[in-house]
Amino acid sequence: MTEQVVTRFAPSPTGYLHIGGARTALFNWLYARGRGGKFLLRIEDTDRARSTPEATQAIIDGMAWLGLDHDGEIVSQFDRAERHRAVALDLVEKGRAYKCFSTQDEIQAFRDAAKAEGRSTLFISPWRDADPATHPDLAYVIRLKTPLTGKTVIRDEVQGEVNIGNDQLDDMVLLRSDGTPVYMLAVVVDDHDMGVTHVIRGDDHLNNAARQMGIYDAMGWALPVYAHIPLIHGPDGKKLSKRHGALGVEEYRDMGYPAAGVRNYLARLGWSHGDDEFFTDAQAQAWFGFDGMGKSPARFDFKKLANISGQHIAAAENAALLQELRAFMAVTGLPPLSDTKISLMTQAMPFLQERAKTFIELLEKAEFILADRPILPDEKAAKSLDPVSLGILGELTPHLQNASWDRHDLEGELTAFAEAREMKFGQLAGPLRAALAGRSATPSVFDMMLILGREETILRLQDAKGAA
């Protein structure tokens, strides 16, 4: 029987879900979901100064917005400290770890002497093979006994085979002198106890794998499959930072990118499936694997993100898109839509979503629905409402009162009206856009008139004429 795949995402709560961390979570989610496995969430909250409930909630909220659902309860690493300590003490009992009583001054003196003599400064504890009967009644740390010779071989699904000489690894501290477990021990114990089969994480953790493998070996536990993925760099090829723009997932949410678009784009950062750029979650889950992973850092490209997001907005079902749009409006502090406006937005969605790359752009196109009478034109639109144009709108109003309110007849009516006055249609469309939406860039005037209806359209034209 094939072992069930179990992956995990294990962020440290720093106040928000980093876009790089979000991609790591996404890769773990895709790998597990595409194989009928489990995707677990563990909060590595052992740094009590930074680990607040608010920071943890920010990560949970970020994952929820991104649509990365996890299985089971969220695991707190801090809550498992007793288990981590028990494993460290068990390793001492097995002879695979030892109590080290060396002080910081003694360790520094060793390193200074080694440096002066041109030797390796990796600390070699005099307590490594000491008789426990000689142990003093002093504070101590617990160190793992790392093999002194040979090499540690990391067989990585992305990086290939990585060899690290054991003479490059010191006897890692497992338990501090105050009895608290170190991160490296906690990670291994948690991954083992949670049944994690595949550890998919950034390649900045590659060297950690060599140290962590020593704990697996000492405890006689099966190793997980390792896959260390390339980091995300900015457009300039340097490590992604604030100077490149947004770092937190919630910033992308607030900029109006749809979650599906962000998922799609992040999946393509460091992984590919042929030349496919746009794909659904179902396709990503079916396709995702380590064979499509590159070794080089991926470069973040905002233009590509916008392009992919626009495709997802265009392809979305109207009801689902409206629901996500309303959620965006809520988190960004925009007033909720009335039932009437929801109805109008639903009717208008087919043309609103065309060529909109973000929800902000979509809402700009929907301004003619969102605005209430009297419509206040912006500075550019106001220039289209000069006395001559307002006079033309006044002449047009009676024609609209008697027109059949369908697209074909409206197009015929307005075209004939313009031709009778030897005007280009654009000369008529400009004032109409300003009167109906208060903007100079809007959807088609016919689309707006059909959505607003005869009565509202005429009232807006009359308002514009009356405001002159």
UniProtKB/TrEMBL annotation:
<dbReference type="InterPro" id="IPR014729">
    <property type="entry name" value="Rossmann-like_a/b/a_fold"/>
</dbReference>
<dbReference type="GO" id="GO:0006424">
    <property type="term" value="P:glutamyl-tRNA aminoacylation"/>
</dbReference>
<dbReference type="InterPro" id="IPR008925">
    <property type="entry name" value="aa_tRNA-synth_I_cd-bd_sf"/>
</dbReference>
<dbReference type="Pfam" id="PF00749">
    <property type="entry name" value="tRNA-synt_1c"/>
</dbReference>
<keyword id="KW-0963">Cytoplasm</keyword>
<dbReference type="InterPro" id="IPR000924">
    <property type="entry name" value="Glu/Gln-tRNA-synth"/>
</dbReference>
<dbReference type="InterPro" id="IPR049940">
    <property type="entry name" value="GluQ/Sye"/>
</dbReference>
<feature type="domain" description="Glutamyl/glutaminyl-tRNA synthetase class Ib catalytic">
    <location>
        <begin position="4"/>
        <end position="306"/>
    </location>
</feature>
<feature type="short sequence motif" description="'KMSKS' region">
    <location>
        <begin position="239"/>
        <end position="243"/>
    </location>
</feature>
<feature type="binding site">
    <location>
        <position position="242"/>
    </location>
    <ligand>
        <name>ATP</name>
    </ligand>
</feature>
<dbReference type="GO" id="GO:0005829">
    <property type="term" value="C:cytosol"/>
</dbReference>
<dbReference type="InterPro" id="IPR001412">
    <property type="entry name" value="aa-tRNA-synth_I_CS"/>
</dbReference>
<protein>
    <recommendedName>
        <fullName>Glutamate--tRNA ligase</fullName>
        <ecNumber>6.1.1.17</ecNumber>
    </recommendedName>
</protein>
<keyword id="KW-0067">ATP-binding</keyword>
<comment type="subunit">
    <text>Monomer.</text>
</comment>
<feature type="short sequence motif" description="'HIGH' region">
    <location>
        <begin position="11"/>
        <end position="21"/>
    </location>
</feature>
<comment type="similarity">
    <text>Belongs to the class-I aminoacyl-tRNA synthetase family. Glutamate--tRNA ligase type 1 subfamily.</text>
</comment>
<keyword id="KW-0547">Nucleotide-binding</keyword>
<dbReference type="InterPro" id="IPR004527">
    <property type="entry name" value="Glu-tRNA-ligase_bac/mito"/>
</dbReference>
<dbReference type="InterPro" id="IPR020751">
    <property type="entry name" value="aa-tRNA-synth_I_codon-bd_sub2"/>
</dbReference>
<keyword id="KW-0648">Protein biosynthesis</keyword>
<dbReference type="Pfam" id="PF19269">
    <property type="entry name" value="Anticodon_2"/>
</dbReference>
<dbReference type="GO" id="GO:0008270">
    <property type="term" value="F:zinc ion binding"/>
</dbReference>
<comment type="function">
    <text>Catalyzes the attachment of glutamate to tRNA(Glu) in a two-step reaction: glutamate is first activated by ATP to form Glu-AMP and then transferred to the acceptor end of tRNA(Glu).</text>
</comment>
<dbReference type="GO" id="GO:0004818">
    <property type="term" value="F:glutamate-tRNA ligase activity"/>
</dbReference>
<dbReference type="InterPro" id="IPR045462">
    <property type="entry name" value="aa-tRNA-synth_I_cd-bd"/>
</dbReference>
<dbReference type="GO" id="GO:0005524">
    <property type="term" value="F:ATP binding"/>
</dbReference>
<dbReference type="InterPro" id="IPR033910">
    <property type="entry name" value="GluRS_core"/>
</dbReference>
<feature type="domain" description="Aminoacyl-tRNA synthetase class I anticodon-binding">
    <location>
        <begin position="322"/>
        <end position="464"/>
    </location>
</feature>
<keyword id="KW-0436">Ligase</keyword>
<dbReference type="GO" id="GO:0000049">
    <property type="term" value="F:tRNA binding"/>
</dbReference>
<dbReference type="InterPro" id="IPR020058">
    <property type="entry name" value="Glu/Gln-tRNA-synth_Ib_cat-dom"/>
</dbReference>
<keyword id="KW-0030">Aminoacyl-tRNA synthetase</keyword>
